[in-house]
C-alpha cells in the first residue's frame, strides 16, 4: 500500500487520494489551474455509510462549555511525528529533472513515515499535493518574516508547532501569527487566545486582525455583513497598523519602514466617508508572478533584509481569510476572496513600497489529529465536495444553541411552518422531542423550502450543506476556547486590554448603538424568513462570497412578499450590467 502512494504531481488518479476543485479546460502552453488543487486522502464507502447511519440514529446531546476547550498538544502531539515535508538538500550541479525527482522521493518517504506512525483513519485531512508544498518551501526561503494567518475561532487547528519551530529554529526567522476574523469572537476570548499562544510559544508575535470592523451579521441568514458609515473597505480594516508595529519591533531599525507607515495612512484617507475607495489617493502596487523554473532552482538566502527590503511571507490554512488580510495590507483588491478552500492557486509577490514586499502562496493543510468534522466546520475541506455532511451538522449542533438561533420545528410536528410567536415557541420547538442530525437538516430544509426536484421531498443534503456554510461564514458561529478559559472567564472579562480589542472589532458598549443599527438595517420586528427570503446561500464557490467585497450591498425590500420573485432584484447591482 505504501509503495502505491504517490507524491501526486501527475494527473493520474490513485485509489487513496481525492483531488478537490478540479478545473476543466486546460489549454496547452498556458498555466495549469489544477496544479495546486487540493489533494486529500479518500474515505472508504463503508466509513461514509457508517457516519450517515449514525446521523440518523444518534440523539444530539448538548455539550458543556468545558468541552469547547482545546489544547494544541492534543491536536499536534509530538509523539505522533506530525511534521511537514521539508525540501531536501540540493546543489547547482543538479539539473531541474534531478531536483524534482529528489523532491518526489523525499516526499514519498515522508508520507510513508507519517502513515507508519499513525494508524489508518486517525489522521485528519491534509494536503497530499507536492506542488503546493513546494510553494511553501519557496515562500519560507524567500521571506524575512513569516505572517502565519489563522482563524481566531479555532487558531490551534491552524497553528502547526512543527512549522513554528522550523522557522524560528532552523531558518532563524521570526513568526507573526495573525489572529484573523477577530470580530467573530467575544473580546475576552480573543484576549485569552492571544495569551495562550504567547505562553506556549514565547518568541511568537501575536496580532489581531479583522477586515470587517463594526460589521456584524444581523441575522443568521444575512448573506453580507451590515454596512456602517465609515467602516467599509480595505482602508478601514483593523490590524494593518498592528502588523506594521510587530515588523518594526522585529527589524529593530534595520529596514526603513516609514514608507509603509505612510502608505497605511494614505490608504485610510483615500476611503470616502461612505467606505467608497478613491482611485486617485491609492498607491499603485506592483504584482509579480514567479516562474516555476526560477523558484525551483532558487537558493535560500541566508541574508535577512537583503538590499534593505523586508520580505513578508503570507502562509496559512485554506479559508482563514489570508487573501483578505493581503488585500487589506495592499490597500486595494488584488486577490479575489472566496469561502472555497484552496482559492489562491499560485505564488505571487506584491511590492507594497520600495522597502516592503509580500509573498503569497496557496493555502495548505498540515497533518494533525483534529476531528474531521471540526475540520469541515473550520472551512478546511470544501463543503460542496462532501459526501456525507450530516455528521458535521451534528457536531455543530451539539456545540451551539441551534434551536434558538435557527428557530427550527421538529419534523414530527404537524402543520404549516411559520415563525413561532410568544408561547408557541416552546410548543413548536418541542423540548420533549429528541433531535438527530438528520432531524435538524430536515427541519432546516422545511423552513428554507429546499425540495428535491422529482419527488418534492425535503432536500436534506442541500440543507446540511447550507448549515455548514453558515458555520464557515460565521453566521452560525462555533468558537473554540483555550484550556481553563471557563475557569478564568471573569479574569478575561475584566482584563485591562479588553478596550483595545473592542476598538479593533469596531464594537460599541453594551446596549449602545442599537437604534443606529435598527435605522440602517431592517426592522427587527419583521419576520426573519421574509427579510432573507432572497438570500440563497447555495452559490458557495463565487468570489467575494465569504468576505462580501466587490459589490455594494442591495437594500432589501420591505413590506409583504409574494411567491413570485423578481430575479433582477435577487441579483446584486453589477450583475445585471
Automatic annotation (TrEMBL):
Q: What does this protein do?
A: Possible regulatory or functional link with the histocompatibility cluster.
Q: Does the keyword Aminoacyl-tRNA synthetase apply?
A: no
The organism's superkingdom is given as: Eukaryota
Record PANTHER family: GUANINE NUCLEOTIDE-BINDING PROTEIN-LIKE 1, LARGE SUBUNIT GTPASE 1 HOMOLOG-RELATED
Q: What is this protein called?
A: Guanine nucleotide-binding protein-like 1
Any Pfam family the entry gives: MMR_HSR1
- The organism is Salmo trutta
Please list the residue ranges that the record marks as compositionally biased, kind Basic and acidic residues.
Answer: 421-431
Name of the gene = GNL1
Q: Which SUPFAM superfamilies match?
A: P-loop containing nucleoside triphosphate hydrolases
Keyword entries, A-Z: GTP-binding, Nucleotide-binding, Phosphoprotein
Region of interest called Disordered, as start-end residue ranges on this chain: 1-33, 413-434, 506-577
CP-type G domain location: 133-367
Q: Does the keyword tRNA processing apply?
A: no
What GO molecular functions are on record for this protein?
GTP binding; GTPase activity
- Comp. bias intervals (Acidic residues): 515-547
